[in-house]
């Protein structure tokens, strides 16, 4: 998408959005609408939106023309027989029937006299060719399925290999760009246009964009969806455009990434860290800051009762966004990773029992005076004393969310979908799926988070970027982690309570 639309814009050209809707069994209006929505979301505007089905009548007439020229024939071989013929380079027994017979039986196909699979129209090229695509590929097949665009006008449908080059020519396409797996089809692409004396576009193939930790094969993604391994084609772990939007990627970052990696004919795999770096820079600039706690533990102040208003900047580098008021209370939540039961690591600056103070962002200092554990042995309540005057400068400031005003949030934390990038080439790819690639946590956020809309991203101070998920409902906020901030290697899971 970036290459096609980008080239058109850069060179003052025009770009089509065309649906190659040749198979009525796989075409649904919901997919048609979704593609247009993704194109708009990415910031592109097609000069024309067309459908291959718009040209079904002309494609049918071209088929008649090929039959009359002795370049196409009706074949009654089964799908398995055709597959074996093409693999063994053997001609079909129906290949040399007369033009009159082929016209008659193609008309029977058109009238629906043949059941699905009983007859196909194949182009007559060269069954001895070293290029499998030149071995009499199928041009038409019978399918008794209504088409979302052509409705029920047809019961024979052209194949993609037959349709693509012809519609390119009919639409006066100058440049037809596709990925390298279509390179072997170039010979049959030009053969068909030559037989019909049609305009020949310039064709150029480029390598697929592969990113570590992800699957980009539509076939393999479809398996994951059908098996329920992912939530759908818009699962945040997938690098589909719908999945990336749900994960919190911005169209600006995606386009910048595509521009950065460029186009090549060499097979390569791009490190996901490059994509994340570009996205992180984009989100850092555009997102407002919020106080959010992903893995909460409760804290109570023993030497203060009350409630106070503090001012929190919406963006530290954008004073024009001003600040917002947040209420600080006696009882609040901090993240478990900011507390340890023993202060025994000189590189850990979070909260631990002892005299060392820790700062609370936009508030005072606290000192841990003790903690309580739940039945499972995990700290459940931390007792602290507060010093609003900050008589000692703390080495770090941690975030918090007041218990009284906390908004419950379902946080979904995502990692790489794959444990090994061999999944991209291994047919047994399911063994490489990371079963822990999605983790769900129940946490809290400040009240301002209620104003965030679906697909809107914010920065959870110190913890990363989060986006509102479409699963959000009234009273149930769902947020996906887009990215972490720069990783703090010393932040880890909270230690359990010591055994007595």
UniProtKB/TrEMBL annotation:
GO molecular function: ATP binding; glutamine-tRNA ligase activity
Known catalytic reactions: tRNA(Gln) + L-glutamine + ATP = L-glutaminyl-tRNA(Gln) + AMP + diphosphate
UniProt GO cellular component terms: cytosol
InterPro entries: Gln-tRNA-synth, Gln/Glu-tRNA_Ligase, Glu/Gln-tRNA-synth_Ib_cat-dom, Glu/Gln-tRNA-synth_Ib_codon-bd, Rbsml_bL25/Gln-tRNA_synth_N, Ribosomal_bL25/Gln-tRNA_synth, Rossmann-like_a/b/a_fold, tRNA-synt_1c_C2
Keyword annotations of the record: Aminoacyl-tRNA synthetase, ATP-binding, Ligase, Nucleotide-binding, Protein biosynthesis
Domain Glutamyl/glutaminyl-tRNA synthetase class Ib anti-codon binding: from-to ranges: 288-386
Residues covered by the tRNA synthetases class I (E and Q) anti-codon binding domain: 398-469
Record-annotated Glutamyl/glutaminyl-tRNA synthetase class Ib catalytic domain positions: 2-284
Pfam families attached to this UniProt entry: tRNA-synt_1c, tRNA-synt_1c_C, tRNA-synt_1c_C2
UniProt record similarity statement: Belongs to the class-I aminoacyl-tRNA synthetase family.
Protein name as annotated: glutamine--tRNA ligase
Organism: Trypanosoma cruzi Dm28c
């Amino acid at each position: 998408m970036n290459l096609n639309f980008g080239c058109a814009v850069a060179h003052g050209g025009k770009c089509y959005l065309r649906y190659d809707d040749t198979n009525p069994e796989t075409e649904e209006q919901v997919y048609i609408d979704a593609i247009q929505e993704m194109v708009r979301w990415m910031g592109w505007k097609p000069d024309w939106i067309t459908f291959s089905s718009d040209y079904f009548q002309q494609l049918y007439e071209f088929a008649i023309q090929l039959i009359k020229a002795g370049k196409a024939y009706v074949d009654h071989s089964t799908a398995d027989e055709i597959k074996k013929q093409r693999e063994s380079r053997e001609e079909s027994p129906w290949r040399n029937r007369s033009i009159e017979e082929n016209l008659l039986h193609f008309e029977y196909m058109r009238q629906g006299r043949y059941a699905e699979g009983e007859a196909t129209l194949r182009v007559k090229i060269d069954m001895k060719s070293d290029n499998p695509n030149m071995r009499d590929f199928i041009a038409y097949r019978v399918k008794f399925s209504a088409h979302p665009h052509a409705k029920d006008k047809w019961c024979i449908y052209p194949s993609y290999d037959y349709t693509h080059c012809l519609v390119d020519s009919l639409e006066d396409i100058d440049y037809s760009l596709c990925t390298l797996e279509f390179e072997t089809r170039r010979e049959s692409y030009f053969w068909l246009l030559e037989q019909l004396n049609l305009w020949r576009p310039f064709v150029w193939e480029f390598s697929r964009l592969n990113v570590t930790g992800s699957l980009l094969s539509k076939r393999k993604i479809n398996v994951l969806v059908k098996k329920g391994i992912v939530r759908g084609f818009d699962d945040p772990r997938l690098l589909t455009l719908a999945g990336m939007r749900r994960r919190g990627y911005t169209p600006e970052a995606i386009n910048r990434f595509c521009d950065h990696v460029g186009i090549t004919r060499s097979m390569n795999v791009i490190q996901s860290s490059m994509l994340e770096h570009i996205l992180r820079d984009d989100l850092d600039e555009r997102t407002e800051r919020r106080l959010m706690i992903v893995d909460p533990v409760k804290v109570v102040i023993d030497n203060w009762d009350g409630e106070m208003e503090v001012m929190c900047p919406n963006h530290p580098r954008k004073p024009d966004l001003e600040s917002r008021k947040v209420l600080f209370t006696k009882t609040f939540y901090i993240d478990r990773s900011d507390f340890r039961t023993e202060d025994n690591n000189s590189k850990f600056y979070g909260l631990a029992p002892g005299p060392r103070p820790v700062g609370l962002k936009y508030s005072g200092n606290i000192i841990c005076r003790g903690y309580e554990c739940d039945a499972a042995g995990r700290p459940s309540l931390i007792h602290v004393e507060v010093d609003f005057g900050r008589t000692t400068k703390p080495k770090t400031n941690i975030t918090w969310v007041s218990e009284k005003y906390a908004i419950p949030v379902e946080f979904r934390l995502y990692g790489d979908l794959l444990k090994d990038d061999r999944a991209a080439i291994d047919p047994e790819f399911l063994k490489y799926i990371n079963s822990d690639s999605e983790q769900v946590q129940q946490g809290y956020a400040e009240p301002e988070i209620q104003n965030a809309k679906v697909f809107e991203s914010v920065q959870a101070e110190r913890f990363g970027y989060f986006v509102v998920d479409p699963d959000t409902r009234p009273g149930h906020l769902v947020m996906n982690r887009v990215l972490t901030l720069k990783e703090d290697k010393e932040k880890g899971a909270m230690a359990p309570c010591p055994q007595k």
